[in-house]
């Protein structure tokens, strides 16, 4: 069932606001150490502790306003809670840094399983917003599967070999830009295999 339509600016604020606030919070607190209950926590862990309930809250608000959440949104908030919670509980930032890897491996794996079955699970998620011929969906799904796995590998390389500052910039801006560029470069698929609105209604 389709969700309710809300102001696009509000929707973007709810979806990207927590990420921007995480970035700002990290820049302000990264050099500080907080002693809580006799344990020292650096700024990254403190900001992560704030980020987890914040993204849960904004996701809940988005659900209340639209009446709908995508499977991707649900999976993301669950993984944020799990890996962010582990980082805070164990006072170890590695778990939160692994979170994008797990998200992209999960999405890429799900799409890959569908491809092995000769199906495009991406079509089931995005068909209403982006009507394509079946061949177009299969091409886009194969490319997106490879893209997700590539991002997972890239995230692992960056957080394991680079500074926390570099990883935070990569997570905040690099991943978002990569997704945007990927879909921009798929314009040929959308043009060649796109279904006109009248055709989609008659299909």
TrEMBL record:
This is Inner membrane-spanning protein YciB. Keywords: Cell inner membrane, Cell membrane, Membrane, Transmembrane, Transmembrane helix. Plays a role in cell envelope biogenesis, maintenance of cell envelope integrity and membrane homeostasis. InterPro entries: YciB (IPR006008). Belongs to the YciB family. It comes from the Bacteria. It is a multi-pass membrane protein.
């Amino acid at each position: 069932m389709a969700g309710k339509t809300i102001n696009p600016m509000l929707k973007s604020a709810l979806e990207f606001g927590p990420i921007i606030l995480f970035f700002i919070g990290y820049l302000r607190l990264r050099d500080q150490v907080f002693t809580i209950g006799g344990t020292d926590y650096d700024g990254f862990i403190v900001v992560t502790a704030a980020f987890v309930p914040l993204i849960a809250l904004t996701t809940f608000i988005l659900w209340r306003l639209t009446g709908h959440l995508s499977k991707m949104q649900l999976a993301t908030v669950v993984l944020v809670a799990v890996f962010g919670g582990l980082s805070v509980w164990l006072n170890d930032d590695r778990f939160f840094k692994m979170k994008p890897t797990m998200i992209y491996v999960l999405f890429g794996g799900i799409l890959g399983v569908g491809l092995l079955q000769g199906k495009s699970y991406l079509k089931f998620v995005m068909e209403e917003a982006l009507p394509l011929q079946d061949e177009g969906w299969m091409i886009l799904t194969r490319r997106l599967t490879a893209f997700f796995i590539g991002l997972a590998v890239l995230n692992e390389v960056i957080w394991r070999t680079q500074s926390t500052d570099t990883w935070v910039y990569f997570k905040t801006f690099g991943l978002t830009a990569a997704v945007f560029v990927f879909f921009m470069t798929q314009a040929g698929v959308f043009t060649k295999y796109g279904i006109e609105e009248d055709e989609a209604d008659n299909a």
